[in-house]
């Protein structure tokens, strides 16, 4: 999608007009330069109540004299915040088949620069399809050419905002691409190669790959155990943005299971194909780095993704195995399908090496989190209440909900109750599975400088099992990988 900003009232192609609920006629200012027949037609549908301007609704009209328009509802004026504008913009693209052509001119009536930018953001976010595997694609649509009109004097600020939002959108779309890729083509080394190639585009980015042999040597027993049963060997990918700056920066860690069969504790067959998105955490992390790099973020940010394919095989790990992680802690593996926490154990321990300001991990970690929160909210745990609140608020600011969940000593106790090892990868029963998983991870977040009694590093865990895929109510997405939390992280990191 091409988006340009221009002050004034020229109309190219189809006119896109957002209205508040209850609008009964086109305001005069809004109507300048419009074909007369089109204007009277719009006035008719508004006046008759055929188009009520309910949130996310659209209606296409064609005037007898050749003018074309799409009306889009913003909902009630009192509720019309940036989120309403963003959703309305997405609705336009979602119903673009009705939009008669690829040239669109958006005309607002009295919207703030932030709201106009949010509308454009919604259009850009929704302008996504994953069609690279279609040899024949009859639905393929031509690129949209969008002109956002504004008042004279607003254009500089509006174009700058839209440019930033388009950089962030490129991060969301990268995350979605990675999540939608089939697992035969998106395996640990393929992810690492893509990161390596990507780094060449930016001179302030360094990507380091810890391959299988190096992971074995380093003692990354969690990553190695999960990935060793696959012919596609595991690896760890480290992303560093502006690494030469002094001082601390955020650290993001992602679960990157490119396919989760469950391993020897094999999953049932139904919908197993969806387990290709078990690398959603790593996609969130890579997408966030892209958003930051593309928008020219000048601060230091580091990220680690733990990539492995969880397969059953003669050389796969077994339930009952005891493994030694990078931290030195041993884990009794009671279920090979609880593999995300094993790779993250090494990723979180490694993270402290970079002396980060804070650590946030992203993982499609548990089915239990989907049971608890459905597809509407990400589970959010933290060892620091204020930090958790900041993340929750960053999510709210961009309309990506993350809901606070408890980290309790009782859950931690449940996870350390192994007869033969320091800890176990399975809770005692099936209840509270998302919480026991979070408590398990907490054991692998070291204190600063790895000192036993040292300062706690603020850490948060985000379980995106329910939100990274198939969020039916999310207007910004459509279907497949959602790319959630790239925008949350961009907001959190760039707003201090
Ligand atoms: N990748 C799954 C979690 C998952 C489930 C993600 C549904 C997305 C949708 C994870 O590795 C897993 O299998 N977890 C087990 C843990 C259990 C064995 C303790 C689960 O949730 O059943
Ligand atoms: Zn699993
Ligand atoms: Zn998994």
Describe this structure in words.
The chain has 496 residues and is of the alpha/beta class. The strands form three sheets. The chain has an eight-stranded mixed sheet with strand order 7-8-10-9-13-17-14-15, sandwiched between helices. Strands 1-6-5-2-4-3 form a six-stranded mixed sheet, with helices on both faces. It has helices at 36-48, 82-94, 113-126, 155-180, 188-199, 212-218, 221-227, 280-294, 340-351, 367-373, 385-397, 409-416, 433-442, 486-494, and strands at 2-7, 14-19, 58-62, 68-73, 103-107, 145-150, 205-210, 235-241, 250-260, 301-310, 322-324, 330-332, 358-363, 378-382, 402-404, 423-424, 459-463. Helix 3 packs parallel to helix 4. The chain folds into two domains: 2-151, Leucine Aminopeptidase, subunit E, domain 1 (3-Layer(aba) Sandwich); 169-494, Aminopeptidase, CATH 3.40.630. It is elongated. Bound molecules: ligand BES and zinc ion (2 copies). The site of one zinc ion has 5 residues, from strand 9.
Attribute tags:
496 residues, alpha/beta, Leucine Aminopeptidase, subunit E, domain 1, Aminopeptidase, six-stranded mixed beta sheet, 17 strands, binds ligand BES, binds zinc ion
The number of helical elements comes to 14
What is the CATH T-level topology of the largest domain? Aminopeptidase
Distance between the termini: 30 Å
Strand content: 15-25%
The CATH superfamily title of the largest domain: Zn peptidases
At the first level of CATH, what is the class of the largest domain?
Answer: Alpha Beta
**Average pLDDT, to the nearest integer?**
96
Radius of gyration: 24 Å
Q: What ranges have pLDDT less than 50 throughout 5 or more consecutive residues?
A: none
Share of helix, binned: 25-40%
- The class by helix and strand makeup works out as alpha/beta
Supply the CATH architecture of the largest domain. Answer: 3-Layer(aba) Sandwich
Strand order of the largest sheet: 7-8-10-9-13-17-14-15
- Report the strand count: 17
Q: Which ligands, by name, code or SMILES, are bound?
A: ligand BES, zinc ion
How would a textbook summarize the main sheet? 8 strands, mixed
Tally of individual domains: 2
Shape: elongated
């Amino acid at each position: 999608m091409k988006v340009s900003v221009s002050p004034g009232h020229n109309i190219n192609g189809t006119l896109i007009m957002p209205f508040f609920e209850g609008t009964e006629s086109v305001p005069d200012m809004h109507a300048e330069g419009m074909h007369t027949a089109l204007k009277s037609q719009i006035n008719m549908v508004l006046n008759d109540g055929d188009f009520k301007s309910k949130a996310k609704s659209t209606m296409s009209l064609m005037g007898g004299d050749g003018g074309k328009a799409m009306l889009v509802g913003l909902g009630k004026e009192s509720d019309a915040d940036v989120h309403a504008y963003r959703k309305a913009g997405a609705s336009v693209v979602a119903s673009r088949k009705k939009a008669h052509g690829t040239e669109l001119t958006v005309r607002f009536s009295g919207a703030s620069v932030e709201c106009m930018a949010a509308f454009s953001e919604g259009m850009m976010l929704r302008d996504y399809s994953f069609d690279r595997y279609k040899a024949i694609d009859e639905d393929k649509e031509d690129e949209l050419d969008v002109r956002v009109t504004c008042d004279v004097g607003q254009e500089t600020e509006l174009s700058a905002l839209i440019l930033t939002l388009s950089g962030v959108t490129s991060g969301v779309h990268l995350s979605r691409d990675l999540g939608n890729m089939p697992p035969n083509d998106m395996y640990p080394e393929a992810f690492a190669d893509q990161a390596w190639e990507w780094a060449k585009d930016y001179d302030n980015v360094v990507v380091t790959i810890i391959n299988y042999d190096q992971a074995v040597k380093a003692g990354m027993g969690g990553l190695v155990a999960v990935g060793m049963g696959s012919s596609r060997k595991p690896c760890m990918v480290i992303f560093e943005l502006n690494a030469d700056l002094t001082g601390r920066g955020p650290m993001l860690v992602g679960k990157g299971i490119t396919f989760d069969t469950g391993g020897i504790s094999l999953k049932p067959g139904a919908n197993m194909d969806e387990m290709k998105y078990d690398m959603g955490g790593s996609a969130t992390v890579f997408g966030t780095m892209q958003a930051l790099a593309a928008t020219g973020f000048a601060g230091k940010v580091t990220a680690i993704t733990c990539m492995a394919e969880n397969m059953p095989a003669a050389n796969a790990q077994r339930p009952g195995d005891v493994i030694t992680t990078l931290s030195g802690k041993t884990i009794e593996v009671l279920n090979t399908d609880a593999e995300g926490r094993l790779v993250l154990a090494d990723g979180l321990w490694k993270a402290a090496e970079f002396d980060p300001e804070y650590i946030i991990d992203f993982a499609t970690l548990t089915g239990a989190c989907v049971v608890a929160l459905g597809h509407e909210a990400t589970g959010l745990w933290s060892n620091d209440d204020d930090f958790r609140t900041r993340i929750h608020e960053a999510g709210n600011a961009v309309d990506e909900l993350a809901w606070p969940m408890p980290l309790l000593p009782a859950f931690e106790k449940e996870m350390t109750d192994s007869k033969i090892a320091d800890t176990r990868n399975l809770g005692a029963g099936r209840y509270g599975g998302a919480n026991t998983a979070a408590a398990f991870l907490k054991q692998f977040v070291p204190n600063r400088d790895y000192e036993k009694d040292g300062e706690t590093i603020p850490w948060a865990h985000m379980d995106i099992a329910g939100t990274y895929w198939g969020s039916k109510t999310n207007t910004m997405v459509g279907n497949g990988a959602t790319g959630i939390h790239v925008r949350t992280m961009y907001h959190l990191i760039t707003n201090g």
